[in-house]
Recover the amino acids of this structure.
């Protein structure tokens, strides 16, 4: 039996694989701490539950328009006006099975074989794989200064005659970095001068800290949406903690949305109307849920930073948004506890029962992504276990669950 070379070239999602390993350990009764998952632990907003329940109880759960329910698209129009200061039409919107499908639809719509898409490192694990899935080429730009925000000159140097798009994710998964407005303005100008699409993955755009309020890319162009090269991707997964509902959307020119509708019509057809009604309920309900979640996550961020300060030989930049940090653990790789970040993540899972995600998956070898989307207890216990497993200055003994463990490998 033979399989396509393209399919075989696509990497396994490390986050989904680690989630499965953690689930199996928990089923065996192991006290696993999950610092790998990008999923808030808040309850689904009640307005989302009631809206979806009303649709379900009506019994009218049939095919709906491929581009989304008119009422949900109306809610997205209002969301765009309120949060982006941009008036769009329903014809500029397509509702998708999560933001991930939006990104796939966009790249599939834009790229032919051998076209290039610029991906800014550190990057979300799926960006390069989605680009490769359509036969295009991901061109990774890694900041030369070792930080998490590329210089504009580095991005500009990566542009070639084959460049079709630049994916911009700010606030950034996995680093939590927020790109400065000046850089966003420069990328907008570059894209409009060169005829390149700027794909803004804004899934975390309201989860920012310390009074920061980054400007949307639209603020830096005078072009209307039909002529602008800016494409916006968003959804309810992160801001409302509704990861399991799988509802995202794309805002783009009418012509591009028309093509994306054809693409989606030949793949998933449409998003479940029950899930779309949940998303509508979230968007039209009380928006205090976003601020409450943001404040909780900011508090978790502060506690994580406090705990990490006592960790010998680990460098960590303070996240400006999202619910991730990307500390540099390369000292422990050099000390031969592990050969690379993937081995280090596996070591921590086996020894300390803590799930992390290797930085290699994000284009940052030597780093580990830590999620503080859960609760304070998970953060403090998880970091304590990691220090016990890795740091020679940490106590040699620890209790994990009801077991007393002694470190014997340092």
């Amino acid at each position: 039996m033979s399989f396509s070379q393209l399919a075989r070239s696509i990497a396994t999602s490390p986050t989904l694989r680690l989630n499965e390993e953690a689930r199996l350990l928990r089923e065996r009764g192991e006290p696993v701490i999950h610092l790998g998952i990008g999923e808030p632990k808040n309850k689904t907003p009640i307005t989302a539950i009631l809206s979806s329940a009303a649709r379900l109880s009506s019994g009218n759960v049939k095919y709906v328009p491929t581009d989304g329910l008119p009422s949900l698209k109306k809610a997205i129009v209002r969301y765009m006006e309120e949060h982006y200061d941009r008036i769009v039409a329903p014809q500029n919107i397509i509702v998708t099975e999560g933001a991930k499908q939006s990104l796939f639809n966009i790249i599939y719509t834009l790229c032919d074989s051998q076209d290039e898409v610029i991906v800014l490192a550190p990057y979300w694990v799926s960006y390069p794989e989605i680009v490769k899935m359509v036969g295009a080429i991901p061109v990774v730009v890694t900041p030369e200064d070792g930080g998490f925000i590329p210089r504009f000159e580095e991005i500009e140097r990566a542009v070639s005659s084959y460049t079709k798009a630049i994916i911009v994710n700010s606030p950034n998964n996995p680093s939590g970095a927020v790109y400065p407005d000046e850089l966003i303005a420069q990328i907008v100008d570059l894209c409009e001068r060169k005829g390149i699409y700027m794909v803004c993955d804004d899934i975390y755009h309201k989860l920012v800290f310390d009074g920061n309020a980054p400007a949307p890319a639209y603020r830096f162009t005078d072009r209307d949406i039909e002529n602008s090269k800016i494409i916006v991707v968003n959804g309810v997964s992160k801001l409302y903690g509704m990861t399991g509902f799988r509802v995202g959307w794309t805002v783009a020119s009418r012509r591009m949305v028309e093509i994306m509708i054809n693409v989606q019509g030949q793949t998933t057809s449409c998003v479940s109307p029950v899930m779309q009604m949940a998303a509508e309920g979230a968007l039209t309900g009380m928006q205090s849920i976003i601020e409450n979640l943001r404040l909780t996550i900011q508090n978790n961020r502060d506690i994580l930073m406090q705990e990490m300060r006592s960790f010998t030989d680990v460098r960590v930049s303070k996240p400006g948004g999202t619910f991730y940090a990307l500390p540099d653990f390369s000292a422990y790789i050099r000390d031969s506890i592990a050969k690379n970040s993937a081995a280090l993540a596996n070591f921590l899972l086996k020894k300390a029962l803590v799930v992390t995600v290797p930085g290699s998956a994000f284009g940052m070898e030597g780093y580990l992504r830590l999620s503080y989307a859960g609760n304070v207890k998970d953060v403090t216990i998880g970091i304590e276990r990691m220090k016990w497993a890795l740091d020679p200055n940490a106590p040699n003994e620890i209790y994990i669950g009801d077991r007393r463990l002694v470190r014997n490998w340092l």
Summary: The first strand starts at residue 33 and ends at 34.
